[in-house]
Amino acid sequence: MTLEFIIKTYKTERYKLYSDVFNNTKVSGLLGFPTYLDYFENYLGYYASIDDTEKLITYSVCGLFEYKGKTYVHPHQKIWRDTGGNEKGIRSEVSAEVINSILENSDAFEKALKTKEFNELYEFIKKYKIPKFGGVEIYDSALRIGAKYGISPKEVYLHGSTLIGLKTLETKRMVEEDLSLKKSVKVEELPACFGDMLPIHIEDLLSVKKVDIMKM
Fold it and tell me: Do both 170 and 73 map to the same domain?
């Protein structure tokens, strides 16, 4: 297995997202999309369609999105336990505090939006979030809110499983040493086979394909 093969597979296979229907924990399962591009179009396109600012912030922070008439919780936000019994995900009370913090600092929020720079939006959320709201949640919230205003990352942000994927490439000497110590990396700093992909897609690939990358 090569990195080129992993990238080709990511681009061509059916995209799968495991999620829960909001407020109905008994209903969960697999959301399938023809390709990763279709997934991002539907997923981020939903946030772009929200006209109410408070709803946009609430849904973005909580990871809620509507698809085919149902409201889903993104797997990054849903509460679950790993094999060690450790709780993962973001509790509603944590999200509520972050939402209130953003709304209470509306002037700084508007200032970040006016820059049209993703990193400004990212840093705004990072500044006004609370400790239990981690790097993945900061990135996801900024990505969702940014979709409404045409603001997207110009670099690949490193956190969670994405960081694991990048560290594996580093271990295999496919990227420069200590690249994983950065907050984000330029596409040009990654192997050339990533060259035609957007940063948001590379961030996702490094996460969802981290196990395959380890097996190379």
Answer: no
